[in-house]
Amino acid sequence: MSAQETAQLLRLAAARAALADGYEAEAVALAERGDRESLAQAADLFTVAAGLRGRARFR
Predict the structure, then answer these.
(1) Which domain of life does this protein belong to (predicted)?
(2) How many domains does the chain have?
(3) In percent, how much of the chain has pLDDT > 90?
């Protein structure tokens, strides 16, 4: 793998991490509302964020 390819992969990983941070912040705001619909949306957003970070687990 070339240095250019490595740099591109690192930029992509950083972009995904930033996107995941945004999803998690939105999820926290929704979860704080406490109603069922907001909690369900928050759970979905946390799952998306986990997927972006490569940590999603589906059972």
Answers:
(1) Bacteria
(2) 1
(3) 73
Pick the residue with more confidence: 49 or 56?
Answer: 49
- The answer to whether the CB of 31 falls within 8 A of the CB of 38 is yes
End-to-end CA distance of the chain: 34
By CB atoms closer than 10 A (0-12, 13-18, 19+), residue 50 is middle
- What are the distances in angstroms from CA 21 to CA 18, 26, 32, 54, 59? 5, 9, 17, 13, 24
d(CA 17, CA 54): 10
Q: Which domain holds residue 27?
A: 3-55
